[in-house]
Amino acid sequence: MTVNLPLPQKAELKPVKGFQMGIAEAGIKKANRKDLLVMTLAPGSQVAGVFTLNRFCAAPVQVCREHLAQEGRNGEIRALVVNTGNANAGTGESGMKHALETCAALAKDLKINPEQILPFSTGVILEPLPIEKIITALPKAVANLGEDNWFDAAEAIMTTDTQPKATSVTVETPAGVVTITGICKGAGMIHPNMATMLGFIATDAGFAPGLLGNLTREVADLSFNAITIDGDTSTNDSFIIMATGQSAVQIQSSNDPSYAILKDALISLARKLAQMIVRDGEGATKFMTIEVVGGKTPEECRLVAKAVAHSPLVKTAFFASDPNLGRILAAIGYAGISDLDVNRVQMWLGDVWVAKDGGRNPDYQEADGQRVMQAPEITVKIDLGRGTATQTMWTCDLSHDYVSINADYRS
Amino acid sequence: MTVNLPLPQKAELKPVKGFQMGIAEAGIKKANRKDLLVMTLAPGSQVAGVFTLNRFCAAPVQVCREHLAQEGRNGEIRALVVNTGNANAGTGESGMKHALETCAALAKDLKINPEQILPFSTGVILEPLPIEKIITALPKAVANLGEDNWFDAAEAIMTTDTQPKATSVTVETPAGVVTITGICKGAGMIHPNMATMLGFIATDAGFAPGLLGNLTREVADLSFNAITIDGDTSTNDSFIIMATGQSAVQIQSSNDPSYAILKDALISLARKLAQMIVRDGEGATKFMTIEVVGGKTPEECRLVAKAVAHSPLVKTAFFASDPNLGRILAAIGYAGISDLDVNRVQMWLGDVWVAKDGGRNPDYQEADGQRVMQAPEITVKIDLGRGTATQTMWTCDLSHDYVSINADYRS
């Protein structure tokens, strides 16, 4: 079950000049399934990434970090390789060896250095990566590299997703038109023993060295770091922005007028992708936006949004379409703002003002709250009344199906 | 459904000299239901409490804090009053007025100062306390005060609990025999809009002024603060230890040899009570002990225990009796120890060594893990391999019934 998540249309996914994708069926976990994706970048491209903070991070995540740190010494990043069916996590030294062997094999095919490749894995953890299957299939993926393969690429990185997730946009800037296209996967951190969030965005804009790193972190914080299904952070989460520089738009500094336009477009596209993960959240029947305003700092707003978005009590109440104010107020109260004056807190469910000055709004009618709760998309707005900072998070409800999906998978 | 939670036997609940309980049916939410409890303490008693940190704390919690702070100026605490059916939370100024009126009415009946009374409420929030019903019923509760009413008292504080929770012990110390009896309530933070954890322990030991405060915090941290059902902290959570000093055992300082014995006994009894709440956790089918050892500090051990105990993925896996190692390792990884060396992490499911040096134990057989997971009580032991600190938490699984109970309550 998904919440307002239409299938992406192939024709809408615009090619990004200088960026190619090739797909293969390696038979990693199941036969006859796209499970290997190779992506290549034209010379001169910039690449930046944000990775899981989980200390049990997977071998490919460690290799990605090292290769991005070595960029320059060993040449710029020119290719990415993603396998599904196996996360290569909790696999120790042999896992690291397999990740490096994957890079080495693809480097040979592409005639570049292994250090110019970023590897990604997602799927079962604690099982050895079937490296031979991957090495055998890599040439097939390389053989069908093309700029028009976005839809197939989105399919190739799916694990527990019920459908591929991709979107595309063109943006006009003073310096010319830029294309941005992205894909992602994820539906909760699940499955034996978890799935993973992966996000890849490519653009034909060019960025001077050093610019893309900060930009990627900013974009991640306002998109993929602002969603939660069940609060669990996987061992493999990765988000990558790639800029081929094949358009007329070349950004030299963050003061460039086109920079702000591109940043807004990247945030908007990344949010759309991130929200697709929530819309496909395990067992999701409701899409919830938690908007916190009036904080002293964005960080404290994030604490409150997270407490509300993570609360099993709030999430089950939304599943039941029950405007259960007390559960939301309680979550605000334990979010961790030790000097919060609750008498200044206001709350709205959609357009209905439900909590006024820390208590029930005297004008609030239960029927109004219930009307809002019937919708598949609901915004909870919380005003902390102590500043001007804001933060928004997106999440889904907690349903019977979430328990079924996660309890029954291996049985 | 409960996990190994037998009904307490009246005969086993020992009276504590100097401590009396009286029960009444005030009809606060439903008729013909014990919903009002008055407790009185002999002169010279010591009382200490630990309260919710939720910023949306209820009016009675604020009054308790004030009256405990005023102790001495206005006389020692001599009585407690608990109502169920209404939490008197999110009720603003009128809520505070009602809590104080409750104390005033009881003070008149008992001929003490209102500041010598601690009020407690649990039940629906955001609804005005029906103060007239409480004031009318108070004399009835006072009329049947007695030392033998522990079972009825445990019943009188129930809300969503499926059964009363109480236990009792006698302890021999060098100075003589001490009786400790306690009751508690709670089954998850739920219901329209939440329930609450309340715990009351009485002993006939005597403590010099000032000793009981620290002791109560230590006991709470190792018992009620070490359990979680769904991670939600209510607006009304309170834990109180009362010492009447009516036995021969009079503790003058924490160096007294009897102090350590009593402390151990109080921790043990409070843990038993706290675990009863987990065993009665909403939808619980499994009782889980999360034991973290080998940490640098108790605090970091608590972070890890909490991450594992709160993870919906871990909890659904236990519901499914699925020895899903990856989910537990992932929770350890994101618990917040930024310099954790995962290669030193060991994990056991019951007596089975499942994760060795951060990866799957080569000798681990899935069948062994599955055998352990079939039991209704399961211990997960995690060795962080970086120190000697330890912390243990208790929790239950996340089942279909949890979603049903919390989603369907108001429909």
State the main characteristics.
18 strands; alpha/beta; seven-stranded mixed β-sheet; L-amino peptidase D-ALA esterase/amidase; 411 residues; autocatalytic cleavage (chains A, B); transferase (chains A, B); Ubiquitin-like (UB roll); homodimer
Please provide a written account of the structure.
Chain A has 411 residues and is an alpha/beta fold. Chain A folds into two domains: 10-279, 4-Layer Sandwich (L-amino peptidase D-ALA esterase/amidase), CATH 3.60.70; 287-408, Ubiquitin-like (UB roll) (Roll). The first copy, chain A, contains eleven helices and 18 strands. In chain A, the strands form four sheets. The first copy, chain A, has a seven-stranded mixed sheet with strand order 10-18-13-17-14-15-16, sandwiched between helices. In chain A, strands 3-11-8-7-6 form a five-stranded mixed sheet, sandwiched between helices. A four-stranded mixed sheet of chain A has the order 1-2-4-5, sandwiched between helices. In chain A, helix 2 (92-110) links the parallel strand 4 (79-86) and strand 5 (117-124). The longest helix of chain A has 23 residues, at 257-279. Chain A starts with 18 loop residues before the first strand and ends with a helix. Mean pLDDT of chain A is 91; it is low at 190-194. At the A-B interface, helix 8, helix 9, strand 16 and helix 11 of A face helix 8, helix 9, strand 16 and helix 11 of B.
